[in-house]
Amino acid sequence: MSEEHVVELRVNGEAHRVEADVRTTLLDLLRDRLDFTGTKKGCDHGLCGACTVAVDGERVVSCLTLAASIDGSEVLTVEGIASGDDLHPLQHAFLDCDGFQCGFCTSGQISSAHAMLAEHARGDLSTASFEGSREDVVSGCSRLSNAEIRERMAGNICRCGAYANIVDAIASVAGERSA
Is the CATH number of domain 4-80 3.10.20.30? Predict the structure, then answer.
């Protein structure tokens, strides 16, 4: 016998109240109940990153996140990164740099990169942060190197191998922010 739970959350700024089984993942709630189909179900084991979204500003793999566990949270999906019909600079960069091939992982890549850029901007460090000069680490890692982008995006797999273009797309947006 399953137990139903009322989940209240904001997705891309819009309030939702949904009754769902306590075992329902955020991914299934987004795709099947709320029709946010940009978030993809890849491996369904938290290994590929295709289902990455931001919950309260932090990246999560939505296939492993129970919807009931984020009751009251703010969720940002790939659909919410754009401003209406105007693409976010990161989305433009993926187009300009050809940061996708088949496109299946692209929504997770963009969602992850969007949250990663915010993490970097607030000074969060990665293991690659310590491979640069001491001044870069002390200053909050103001420059986002390609090696650091690769490290921070390691949880997102592209089966087509568009990694170089994905890194270029993220680097181009990171460069605009630091300039």
Answer: yes
